[in-house]
Amino acid sequence: MGTKPSRDNVDVITEQWAAERPDLDTWPMDVVGRISRASRLLERGVKEFFDTHDVEPWEFDVLATLRRAGSPYQLRVGQLVRSAMVSSPALTNRLDRLVAKGLVERAVDPDHRRSVVVTLTAAGFELVEDLVAGHVANEARLLEFLSPRERGDVVRALRRLLVGLRDVPHP
User: Fold this and answer.
1) For the chain, which residues score pLDDT lower than 50?
2) Angle of the 57-68 helix axis to the 27-51 helix axis, nearest 10
């Protein structure tokens, strides 16, 4: 059995900068670089799971957002934009594709005639229900090397980071 590496690729990058520009304090690269790289690696692992089910991660995200909203599994487009962290035109494109697949429906909000409501169809609900447990199991597999204590530490640190960056719920 080999030993686990105690260095990562960000160490190499910051060491190179230290050699070339010793005047730079590269601690922000230690944080941002690791979060960026971890995000890409996790996204790849999530995409590989959804690829085996012929679903794009963004499709699952929109459908799961509607499912989490509870019965009747619908939200206004503005609520979906905030949740999906994409522009309104990008969400419109995504919704067009989900409507074409019969996974969501769009309608004018009867309570706010200038708003559009998106509702999960029976097929969309079934797809989310079929995938959500496997998706969570896949995420657990991607993080299985972290001890329960490390998981808690990571969650607390990332929550503090997101709150500091003002990624907080809208009222």
Assistant:
1) none
2) 90
Give the length of the chain. Answer: 171
Both tokens of residue 113? 């005639």
Distance CA 63, CA 109 (A): 19
Closest CA to 144 of 126, 136, 162: 136
DSSP string, 34-83: HHHHHHHHHHHHHHHHHHTTT--HHHHHHHHHHHHT-TTTEEEHHHHHHH
What's the Cα-to-Cα distance from 96 to each of 17, 25, 33, 100, 126, rounded to whole Å?
Answer: 46, 47, 35, 6, 19
Tokens at 28, concatenated:
């922000």
Two structure tokens written together for 77 = 């487009």
Measured CA to CA, the distance from residue 134 to residue 46 in angstroms comes to: 10
* Cβ 56 vs Cβ 94: under 8 Å: no
Residue pointed to by tokens 């670089």: 33
pLDDT digit string, tens, across residues 53-94: 999 999 999 999 999 999 999 999 988 988 877 888 889 999
Contact 103, 120 (CB under 8 A): yes
